[in-house]
Specification:
Rossmann fold, 22% helix, metal-binding, 147 residues, tRNA threonylcarbamoyladenosine biosynthesis protein TsaE, P-loop_NTPase, seven-stranded mixed sheet, 4 helices, T6A_TsaE, metal ion binding
Length: 147
């Protein structure tokens, strides 16, 4: 488990970049935190490391954004999910969620705590909690985290 305090959005992205250096194909990152906690800022930091050129935004209404990047000289896809608007775990297979989740890219799932039984034990959890106007407590745990 790794824990740190972030005092700005840039610091959150910087720590996410450090974390992303450890990610590999097939990794699943579960982001947990309240609305406005900084989950999407964390994703921006991850996408920086993979040299994604698309603008990173929370896929609240589209459910999934796919960012194309590069890892060790070869193309890689980052699957950025937002489960905020999903009503039931039974909807996930219907949208092809598991095909992406267990695919060859890196999956990043916002609001993952809504359906915890759906994810494998090796998933990495990133908990982000506001603890002041600009401060966030970030705890990275579980899975095969190498951070």
């Amino acid at each position: 488990m790794k824990e740190f305090l972030s005092r700005s959005a840039e610091e959150t992205r910087g720590r996410a970049r450090e974390f992303a250096e450890t990610l590999q194909r097939g990794d699943i990152v579960l982001l947990v935190g309240t609305l406005g906690a900084g989950k999407t800022e964390f994703v921006r930091g991850i996408c920086d490391v993979f040299h994604c050129t698309a603008s990173v935004s929370s896929p609240t209404f589209t459910l999934l954004n796919i960012y194309e990047g590069v890892s060790k000289g070869s193309a890689i896809s980052l699957y950025h999910f937002d489960l905020y608007r999903i009503e039931s775990e039974t909807e996930l297979p219907a949208i092809g969620f598991d095909e992406y989740l267990f695919g060859d890219g890196v999956s990043i799932v916002e609001w993952a705590d809504r359906f915890p039984r759906f994810f494998p034990k090796q998933a990495i959890t990133v908990q982000i909690e506001p603890c002041g106007e600009n401060e966030r407590r970030v705890v990275i745990s579980g899975g095969k985290s190498r951070f």
